[in-house]
Design goal:
Elements (H helix, E strand, L loop, with lengths): L2 H4 L6 H17 L3 E5 L18 H6 L18 H12 L4 E4 L5 H5 L6 E3 L6 E4 L5 E3 L14 E5 L6 E4 L10 H13 L2 E5 L14 H4 L4 E5 L12 E3 L3 H12 L6 H16 L3 H17 L7 H13 L1
Parallel strand pairs: 1-2, 1-8, 2-3, 8-9, 9-10
Antiparallel strand pairs: 4-5, 4-7, 6-7
Helix pairs in contact: 2-8, 4-8, 9-11
The structure holds zinc ion (ZN).
Protein name: protein acetyllysine N-acetyltransferase
Pfam families: SIR2 (PF02146)
Family: Belongs to the sirtuin family. Class IV subfamily.
């Protein structure tokens, strides 16, 4: 990795705002928008990236101590960029999300399973090779320390088969299901938005380019470091994804909840819907807490705050 590859660039605020306005226009005009994300969008959640100044590859390259996640995994929260993507998908302004990240924060933020292709797996997901059942856990599934050993030690509830973590390590084949859906949606895209990836790992790096080469679509890249595809981008932003998303959504006039707000709204709606008394609510909360322990929040978060946001924007 060259010094040039590691360098981060930042544009001034005026330029970032201008490009956010330009992308907002482009999103409104486009029919099929697909977003592609990489490690860069999760660094502000406390997860180190690969090629940033304190990234994994950079540290290995410079013989420095490798970075660690600074919070327990179950306390990591989706960033403003994650919440923005979830909101755009709910609104139908973006049709699909392709991610190289395995941290599970997209599902956590409320992205439905059918709207995401996770190319390199999901640390919260384990699956049965015998009956193909998938299990989402509120903890990291991987237990093995051997690179190519993926057994987690747990068994399938349905057939008793061995469960395997879904993480794809270097040199391993991608999940056919995930790569196929990623290709399918990338081929339909007339606008590809690349957020927080240096586009150096294939096939993830090829997907946003599929339609640009055929001149059927446009590509926008937001990343602090240069990428090999920069010359093909209609809009190229050197900025933080959280910051850029903030100005983008302001241009689109769509409010984005924080992760905590989304959870609170969900809880409030549930109380109203079920018309719970205080005592019942307390009992429910205990049950809900138990449920939380077993299910990632993401999988039932989405529908709760959707209506609330619609109400807010109609005012
Ligand atoms: Zn099974």
């Amino acid at each position: 990795m060259s010094e040039e590859d590691k360098k981060e660039y930042k544009e001034n605020l005026k330029s970032i705002k201008k490009k956010a306005a330009k992308l907002a226009k482009l999103i409104r005009k486009s029919k099929y928008v697909v977003i592609h994300t990489g490690a860069g969008i999760s660094t502000s959640a406390g997860i180190p990236d690969y090629r940033g100044p304190n990234g994994l590859w950079t540290c290995l390259d410079q013989n420095r101590e490798t970075p660690v996640v600074d919070k327990p995994w179950n306390l990591l929260e989706p960033t403003n960029c994650h919440m923005t993507i979830a909101t755009l998908l709910q609104r139908g302004l973006v049709k699909h999300l392709v991610s190289q990240n395995t941290d599970g924060l997209h599902l956590h933020s409320g992205v439905p399973l059918e709207k995401i292709s996770e190319l390199h797996g999901n640390s919260n997901k384990e699956y049965c090779k015998d009956c193909q059942s998938e299990y989402f856990r509120p903890f990291r599934c991987r237990t093995s320390r051997e690179v190519h050993d993926h057994q987690t030690g747990r068994k399938c509830d349905k057939c008793g088969g061995k469960l395997y973590d879904s993480i794809i390590n270097f040199g391993e084949n991608l999940s056919e299901k995930q790569i196929n859906s990623a290709y399918l949606h990338s081929k339909k895209a007339d606008l590809s938005i690349v957020l927080g990836t240096s586009l150096r790992v294939t096939p993830a790096a090829d997907l946003p380019m599929i339609n640009v080469k055929k001149q059927k679509g446009k590509m926008v890249i937001v990343n602090l470091q240069k990428t090999p595809l920069d010359d093909y981008a209609s809009i190229r932003v050197f900025g933080r994804t959280d910051q850029f998303c903030f100005y983008l959504m302001r241009e689109l006039e769509i409010p984005v909840p924080t992760f905590k707000q989304a959870l609170e709204l969900r809880a409030k709606k549930r109380r109203e819907k079920l018309q719970l008394t205080e005592k019942e609510e307390k009992k429910q909360k205990i049950q809900e807490y138990k449920f939380f322990q077993q299910t990632p929040k993401s999988l039932f978060l989405l529908d709760y705050y959707e209506e609330e946001i619609h109400k807010k924007t109609k005012k």
